[in-house]
Task: structure prediction
Amino acid sequence: MRRFIEANSWTLGLAVLLAALLLATKLIQPGFGASGLDSLARAALPFALATVGMAIVVLAGGIDLSIAAMMAVASVTGAVLMQGTTDAQSIPVVIGVLLVGLAMGAINGLLIVVSRVPDIVVTLAMLFVWQGVALLILNAPGGAAAPWLRSIAAGGFPGIDWLPKGVVFLGVVTALIWLPIRRSKLGLRLYAIGSDPLAAFRSGVPVGQTRIIAYALCGLFAALGGLSVTMGTGIGEPIPGPYLLASVAAVVLGGVVLGGGRGGLIGPILAVFILRTVRMDLTLLSVDPNVAAIIEGSIMVAVVMFGAVLATRGRKA
Amino acid sequence: MPDAPDAVPDAVLDATGIAKRFGAVQALKNASLQVGRGQVVALMGANGAGKSTFVKILTGVLKPDAGHVKIKGRVSTVASPAGAREWGLVPVYQEPSLIPDLSVADNLRLGDTAMEPFRHWVAELGLPDLDPEAMIRSLPLASLRIVDLARALAIEPDVLLLDELTAALPTDLVERVLKVVRAEADTGRSVIYVSHRFTEIAAICDRATVLRDGLTVGDVKIEPGIEEHIVEMMMGGAVAAAVAGDRPAKPALTDMPRLRVKGLKTGTRLSDVSFDLHKGEVLGVVALEGQGQDELFDTLAGNRKASAGTVEVDGAAKTFHHPADAIAAGLTLVPGDRAHALLMSRSVRENIVVPLLARFRNWGAIPMREEAVKVAQAIETLQIDTRAQGEVRRLSGGNQQKVTIARWIAKGVQTLLLFDPTRGIDIRTKRQIYALVRTLADQGAAVLFYTSELAEIRLACDRAVVIFNGRVVDVIDAKDADEATLMRAAYGLTEKVPA
Result:
């Protein structure tokens, strides 16, 4: 038990922080309840999915700057293909979009592994490529989303009113994809190449292949994120949203070490909700949006610094 | 060759005619190695002889341009470390190949290694209390080597390749490891033992294969007195007379020591250490692993704060809050880990110049001419192989180590703190480093010299302090410092109050 707490102290700390922030929200706005939580979850969903994708790549020692552009491609592909389809017809569309996401990510990974150009350069280049692709598919917001898809992450969970469906959706999707991986050798390999690629190679890990898989998974989560944008708005959005920097911020705040090997997925997801709740509270307090941005940035630096201080203390004790 | 060994009957591993070129450098011309069943064969060679390249080819990290490697009679098509393992060859590399952010157990799972045999070997190798859930990052270097070796043994390979395995091990663990390796060979396993340490090779090896300039120049049976012959082969006949034996007359000890350490206590390991280090003296430090020597050097270099005791430099008491304070007081540390000291992807020139800059900066722009002269001098004095001087990380380990010393020589050093400077480098470079240390001392520098190789005390030092359990237990004159005496002292068997 002690070991569990020690190993997950950062995540537990984030959970406590999020609870405190939600409590503060309730104090600021006594009417904050199920509907407030629901709109928070809906706003956070694309950010959370992008963050999960980014976290996987960062854990594996990489970074993907093209994530928001891939989300745009997924969003417009889904919206265009779903226009005028029935519910039954839209299911293969969703599957197709997810496969497109996997393929985009795999292409990113393949280019990095084969060309040996640094990941930050390759994915920066691919950012422009995917951006162009998204605008070719749909040059202005448009298209449609199937009604069942729109309702999948909207409203409260049947029976438990205060629990937003968006949170359930996020939890189920992430668990379905990540848990089997985390428990298998692939999970160990992802952490291994992030921690020390040379040692991983010497331990017999297929480093290149594992790296491609990490980027493909990132693409898959980007596609889910893009679909969630379409779910939220009902249309396809060809211009990439502010998901790249936000996801990197949440990954760092979530306790994943840039450079790889250390951290998990729960921390970054909690971090997304923390950042979104802070923004919501600042809006509720009618703080100037420009000042709000400064406060958000300061909170991030302060929390990460505070964590570093705690970590050094702990090591000395 | 007067001593061609009996032909190797049914060699388990047979590498013949291996050649490899990197750009303009022909690293290997014609290297060969035969290992019979149940044999331990030492692979030896000086800096740049092509040993690391040969090891990489044997283990599938590199592909040879010519030649072939046969394992159990089949031509190996090894293409990766994983592939080498399938063919029955398992390497234990010089640097641990364990994932720092995974637990011991997860590292085993990653390589499909069974837990039970691993536990058996870890206990056999002297770490029965190892927690399999411990993070690799949290384990000391010596334990990592043991974990690495135990993992390799658990795979039950036909051929075990051990690359400088004992370089980071304390003496007591070395003995256990050697015993286990020899016993494994006696049950029929074959071992390739890459090492610079003659005592270990004499203890467990059957034969030695010697590389020089990319060629296999000899394959000899290990027998008493073979050492000098092997050294000759490694150096190509022109052996510089051993530095050993004739220590120059002990320098006249000035009244005022350059460095006086009194009752120093740091952390939990270093509890009470006192000694004087004089101008012109090389003072050896002997200790088993973890007796407080790391803390001693860290404290003197300003990396850690002492909790008790005093440090006097030229008679003035000093407190170091930062490495810059120690450097200002003339104390410079050459750390044991070269990677901590060098800018790996910068040039030899820049690496030598970095400590100089503090001084040159006083005149504004960097005076290129003075810099060039100093750098050339340092390279010359140290005989640094400058074929790959554009990037330090492409130099061999021995040459990197020379660069770490060169930078301080160019600056003009007063007190040099050398922490295990010859770890894992070849005998020729070692001798150059001893000679260099002596020269520095003759020019008036004071040198504190920690070494994990006891034989070096006689070769490079005037006196040695022996630290056991955080305290100085003995001070031994170089002329009395044979390995047995030092070993007994290091184990705390001869404790006496130093004068």
